[in-house]
């Protein structure tokens, strides 16, 4: 689904991504691991249109998508999750979900040229969709809670839920399990697996927790110093000499 070809991203003279090439197969849950500073988040940000690449290409389903803006990628079904913006913390969980389609599409709020009846109809559809998403994620009980009051793990589920408000094809998750307790980590893992199996989402997941990666991801791609160091299933990766050395070398 996604092919990254010899990608470079420089900040000043420093190459955060230094000639990375990799593929994310359609239907996979691909893991991306590596020591801190390896360039994982920068790679995500280039793929997701947050940064333009210094050189190299990103191909999605055969089409060159390098340097497209996040809202253009959003229309193609390529999403990355973001931490909930501070200004939405006083809105309820359901409201946070309901605003995703208008918010992310680069359009401004469903505008005045719709009559009032039309707006109400749209709002009802959005509300029904949001409730379906909350049900899927097993957090219906916090629908009317202010988003700012959620636990860390519930916030992560809500971030994942935001991708379900639209027709996502490929979703990039950057440390979705960071600081999350075991129980909710399991809930997040289950949601990812179900989205993959039942809705056909392709995932690329950055995560440090190797249990999580091992349970979820095949293949696992290892980055170090801006490059791809190794690729394989979780077991083979953990026995790979170069991978062990990259982690110990820091
Ligand atoms: P990872 O996610 O693998 O920990 P990052 O992609 O966040 O790594 O960072 C890779 C390297 O690029 C690090 O050395 C980091 O300090 C540097 N870096 C990341 N973003 C920027 C930026 N916006 N400006 C300058 N340097 C950056
Ligand atoms: Mg990172």
UniProtKB/TrEMBL annotation:
<dbReference type="InterPro" id="IPR003593">
    <property type="entry name" value="AAA+_ATPase"/>
</dbReference>
<keyword id="KW-0813">Transport</keyword>
<dbReference type="GO" id="GO:0005886">
    <property type="term" value="C:plasma membrane"/>
</dbReference>
<dbReference type="InterPro" id="IPR032823">
    <property type="entry name" value="BCA_ABC_TP_C"/>
</dbReference>
<protein>
    <submittedName>
        <fullName>ABC transporter ATP-binding protein</fullName>
    </submittedName>
</protein>
<dbReference type="InterPro" id="IPR003439">
    <property type="entry name" value="ABC_transporter-like_ATP-bd"/>
</dbReference>
<dbReference type="InterPro" id="IPR051120">
    <property type="entry name" value="ABC_AA/LPS_Transport"/>
</dbReference>
<keyword id="KW-0547">Nucleotide-binding</keyword>
<keyword id="KW-0067">ATP-binding</keyword>
<dbReference type="InterPro" id="IPR027417">
    <property type="entry name" value="P-loop_NTPase"/>
</dbReference>
<feature type="domain" description="ABC transporter">
    <location>
        <begin position="2"/>
        <end position="250"/>
    </location>
</feature>
<dbReference type="GO" id="GO:0016887">
    <property type="term" value="F:ATP hydrolysis activity"/>
</dbReference>
<dbReference type="InterPro" id="IPR017871">
    <property type="entry name" value="ABC_transporter-like_CS"/>
</dbReference>
<dbReference type="Pfam" id="PF12399">
    <property type="entry name" value="BCA_ABC_TP_C"/>
</dbReference>
<dbReference type="GO" id="GO:0005524">
    <property type="term" value="F:ATP binding"/>
</dbReference>
<dbReference type="Pfam" id="PF00005">
    <property type="entry name" value="ABC_tran"/>
</dbReference>
